[in-house]
Structure formats: C-alpha cells, structure tokens
Write a structure and sequence with these properties.
With 265 residues, this protein is of the alpha/beta class. The chain has helices at residues 24-35, 49-58, 75-88, 113-141, 166-186, 208-215, 226-238, and strands at 15-18, 39-44, 67-69, 95-98, 148-153, 190-197, 246-249. The protein has one domain (12-199, 223-251): NAD(P)-binding Rossmann-like Domain (Rossmann fold). The chain is built from seven helices and seven strands, in the order βαβαβαβαβαβααβ. It has a seven-stranded parallel β-sheet with strand order 3-2-1-4-5-6-7, with helices on both faces.
C-alpha cells in the first residue's frame, strides 16, 4: 500500500439542499457550505427578506443559490420539494441537510396528540421523505456508491433528557432512531448521518447574558457554536466512510444533568 492509497477520497462539493436555511442555524450551515464550494439551495417556508438575504450570501462566482418555498407540515409540498430543487440546480442534487424544525413547548401535563402529530410531520416525516427523494433521484442518475448524503439535525437533549418540549423531543428521538435504519435501507448510494448540537444560539426567551452563562455549563466550558455545528455537517457530507452514526457537537453538555430545558432554566 502506497502513501497515495491512504489519502482520503472525499467527493468534490456538489449541490445541497439545506432546509430552514433562511435563519439561525440553518442559515449558518448554508453559508458555511457555500464558502466550502457547495452549491446551495435555500429552503424556507416563505421566500421572505431573510431567505433572499441568505441566498444572496450563498451565491458565489456567479452561481445563484435558488430559494424554494415549502411548508414542511404539508406532505404534498415536501414530496414536490426535491424535484423542484433538482430542476433549479441544473438536474443534479447530491445532498440534503435537514435543519428546519418545529419547536413548540409542551410537557407531560399538557401533552396533546395533535401537537405531537404536528411535530412529527415537520421534524420526522419531512426529513425522511427528503432522504427518500434524494435516494430516488440518485438512483435515476445511476450515481455510484456513497455519492449522496443526508444529514439530520438532532439535539443533545436526546442524550440528556428533561421533561420540557415533550413533543419536540419525541419527534427528534424518532428521527435519531431512523438514522441507522435509513443508512441501511438507502445504502450503498446514500449515506445518512445525524448531527446533535448542544446549546448553540439563544432562543427568543433568553437574554444574551443568560445565554452566555448557560453556554459555559459544559465540561469544556463552552457548548457548540454555529461554526462548530456547520463544520460537523460539512465533515459528515464529505467523509464517505460515515453512515448510520450521530455526531454530538455539544462541548460535552450531554454528560451533565439538566433538570429543565435551557430556555426554561
């Protein structure tokens, strides 16, 4: 075996759909991938000013980043999304990053099946359908093994549970369980990887000072930054030997017990 054979054989950046790319973590991931050479399709529920701004930031070297509207709670819209992305990206898409998520509060005392169903549709069913659609698209192209990748954004809360946001957590737990199942079912063409961030961005209920305080509560003295999470997503997309695994990017927060969700502390 020569040193040349030991060099990593990672795919060149291709075209990727990032859901929820207009704002917050999805936007950070989309911009980081664009800077790394990926051609990014920006998904948003509405093609508003934030979505257009994200697309403008992702466009590079004269290559536009299309904005595609879709309500992930609408199964018909979700099934139509990947074919629309393929058309907008010139006939080929190589990866999907499922970052968009519904995040509404409930707990055991006010749980309702209706709210759970809404979380499951957006946070579980939509990512699974987009992975299914990518696999079908790559099969139609006759793509070689490990040429496609799906990254599902999860949550360190799955590994350090608390009673808050019950329906959200159940929907992400189902998606986490699906990572190895989809990895087996969609192999060898599509890899499926989970990325589970810790406390990364402040919520609307949290002040900057409180976020800074909570962010330090980890073994490393810091949780995950948007750049850390985006780097993990890129690593998952570009390393052809990873599938069926979940990367925890949380500064070790899962190793500490929190009685409540960060937003409720």
């Amino acid at each position: 075996m020569t040193p040349e054979t030991l060099q990593p054989h990672n795919p060149a950046p291709g075209a990727v759909l990032v859901t929820g790319a207009a704002r917050r973590l999805g936007r950070c991931i989309a911009l980081a991938l664009a800077q790394a050479g990926w051609r990014v399709a920006v998904h948003a529920r509405q093609a508003d000013a934030d979505a257009q701004s994200a697309a403008a930031a992702c466009a590079r070297n004269g290559v536009p980043a299309p904005v595609l509207e879709a309500d992930l709670a609408d199964e018909t819209a979700v099934r139509a999304l990947l074919p629309r992305v393929v058309a907008a990206m010139g006939g080929a898409v190589d990866a999907v990053v499922n970052s968009a998520a519904m995040f509404e509060f409930d707990c055991a005392t006010n749980f309702s099946p209706a709210l759970l169903a809404r979380h499951l549709q957006t946070n579980t069913a939509a990512p699974l359908l987009l992975a299914q659609a990518l696999a079908a698209h790559l099969a139609e192209r006759g793509a070689p093994p490990a040429s496609g990748c799906v990254v599902h954004l999860l949550d360190q809360q799955l590994f350090n549970p608390n009673p808050d946001f019950l329906s959200y957590t159940l929907s992400k737990a189902a998606l986490h369980a699906a990572v190895p199942m989809q990895a087996l079912a969609l192999a060898p063409t599509v890899r499926v990887v989970g990325v589970a961030p810790g406390l990364t961005l402040p919520g609307h209920q949290m002040s900057a000072a409180r976020f800074a305080e909570l962010h330090t509560q980890s073994p490393l003295g810091r949780a995950s930054s948007p750049q850390d999470v985006a780097a993990a997503v890129r690593f998952a997309l570009e390393n052809r030997s990873i599938t069926g695994s979940t990367l925890l990017v949380d500064g070790g927060q899962r190793l500490m017990h929190f009685a409540r969700d960060f937003s409720m502390m």
